[in-house]
Design a protein that fits this description.
Blueprint (H helix, E strand, L loop, with lengths): L1 H8 L7 H9 L6 H16 L2 H9 L2 H8 L5 H14 L3 H10 L2 H6 L7 H14 L3 H9 L3 H6 L6 H14 L3 H9 L3 H7 L5 H14 L3 H9 L2 H10 L7 H11 L3 H9 L2 H11 L3 H14 L3 H9 L2 H8 L5 H14 L3 H10 L1 H7 L5 H15 L3 H9 L3 H7 L5 H14 L3 H8 L3 H9 L4 H14 L3 H9 L3 H7 L5 H14 L3 H9 L2 H10 L6 H12 L2 H8 L26 H9 L14 H12 L14 H15 L4 E4 L5 E7 L15 E5 L8 E3 L3 H6 L3
Antiparallel strand pairs: 1-2, 2-3, 3-4
Protein name: Armadillo repeat containing 3
InterPro entries: ARM-like, ARM-type_fold, Armadillo, Armadillo-Ser/Thr_Kinase, EDR1/CTR1/ARMC3-like_pept-like
Keywords: Repeat
Amino acid sequence: MSQIVIKNLFDPLLIESKTAATVVLMLSSPENEVLAKACDALYKFASKGDENKVTLLGLGAVERLYKLISHEDPIVRRNAIMVFGIMASNHDVKKLLRELDVTSSLISQLAPEEDVVIHEFATLCLAHMAVEYTTKVQIFEQGGLEPLIRLLGSPDPDVKKNSVECIYLLVQDFQSRAAVRALNIIPPLLELLKSEYPVIQLLALKTLEVISKDRETRIMLGENKGLDCLLRILETNEFSDLHAEALAVLGNCLEDVHALQLIQQTGGLKKLLSFIGVSTVPDIQKNAAKAITKAAYDSENRKILNEEEVEKYLINLLEIDNDEVKVAASQAISAMCENLASKHAFGLQGIPQLVQLLSSDNEEVKEAAVTALANLTAASPRNARAVAEAEGIKPLVNTLNAQRDGAIANAATVLTNLAMQEPFRINIQSHGIMSVLAEPLRSTSSQVQSKAAFTVAAFGCDADARTELRDAGGLRPLVELLCSKNEEVRRNACWAVMVCASDELTAGELCRLGALDILEEINLSTGRKNNFSEAALEKLLDNNLSRKYSQMGYLSSSNIITDGFYDCGQVKAIDPGIHWNRLVADKMGGPIERDKLHDFSWELHISEIEFELKCNVVPIGKVKKGTFYHRALLFKVIADRIGIGCSLVRGKYNRAWNEVKLVDDSPQGIAGLLLPPHEYIVDLMFAPGFLIKQGSAEADQYKNI
């Protein structure tokens, strides 16, 4: 009777969701024949679609099958792994398989003596699971790479396909890339390029593309005649579907001078470039341009490519009606510009095409084109003139409003390069560049800030340009850039302020916005000051002679006193210990009222920094809301840097303070009497800058004694 039930139950035409539950229960049978047939029936059921896989998942089939993939009976084991292989394509099944940690059991099924069907479905399951990073790590740590590489030589094409696909996913991680190199993966991968199945060839090429990013692997590829294999694929019309991927691998190889020289000597480079000129497939054209870009990172490679007249091929690619090709070609031109002969060649032909791309609706195309123009016009008045003659000024100014930071920064660079020639500078100013620059000056990108400030310096020599910037509200963000922590931004901002301070109105507005005070502070710091900060300060003072005479005690013959000048006397030097007390407090959240100290939520701020850094060690410079011990530590650090002697004392309840010794003035009428120093506590919390005499009630209160 049981045989009849089993026979009917396992009829593939009858098994549906109703009977599936019964079949799943039979996975616990003690009879091997029942187990084998149950697994076979579930395999056929799961093969019908994702909905059936979800059904089996809900019925608990995965957990029961997991116990069977290591079953002693080879048929049961084979059939169970077949179900796993087909079900693992479902996301929720994969999640459960990870939780069950099935990878170790699957890897153990890849032994040479196992059935080829087991190899096929175990590798299929691993390939499905290897899309997840955690599973990649598991397979690597459990030694899965070695058997997978061995199975690349399997006589079964499905095993080859699944194995190479799994390896392709694993080598996305650098540890696996190094490991497969040590396991000598190159020969079996090159052998797969001869497969009669395009999908296997394609996966082999994709894997080679990833692993050939490492120089050591490229050396092994060359030693195994890999370059010849790639060139043969490119020369074979029947392999046209593989040409794009073959070019991607070749592009990695061309980063090495030796590889490029070898290809040139054998005539392969000419074939490669002529192939680019003939092909009409965008992916092939794109990957060819990318290959040239990678090769052009090396100066010797650039010379070789220039000898082969690579420039004409890249210029032709700019005309292709495909945005990805245009981007890749523009990037290759940027890289080749490091070669002066190439730079000259592109200037003669490529600049008008690049200018046209500035009007593209594609922001990536726009960025790539303007970056190429920035490289072409650098230290090249001839190319700068070619840009102007190609009517590039208006689209360049418009590009300052682009969405991508790289496009804005490079547009500013090109305009600055053009401004070195007076007629072009005047032309650019007529397009209202200073009004447009007001917005890039407000950018949060240090790259954009730096280039925008540099461009202001280039155009600020003109009085009308300064007026335009002032009217557009551009001086305020420029002054704010003086406080930047980025050295290049700060230097260029100082330069721009120095240039813009050439007239009294602009200099006065800059002073009103705080530029003078900021520059004085910068110049007190040996680490932050620069040649332009000192020159900018002097230029501002030249337009505020009363303050200059008060601070510097000197007016030169070129400083002409006009009505309104006044002498307010010599400015007394500020106690730097009192510049720095207030600075520390400002950096740590400002002064706190005593009765509101408990509302100052510094603990949450510190926890957020620790969470961001994934570390309990917090750099003091990242703290923006600090309590007593943060402020005292920062004051000690700064005091040590500027030569003020002070101590750092830890108290209780998160209290800490700094103690300094100061000498009081001599008593009136007793000149020259040197009194012993008194010890003070520096208030950094409640009244920053106030010194509390040690031993006083106020001192005890500050220390919370």
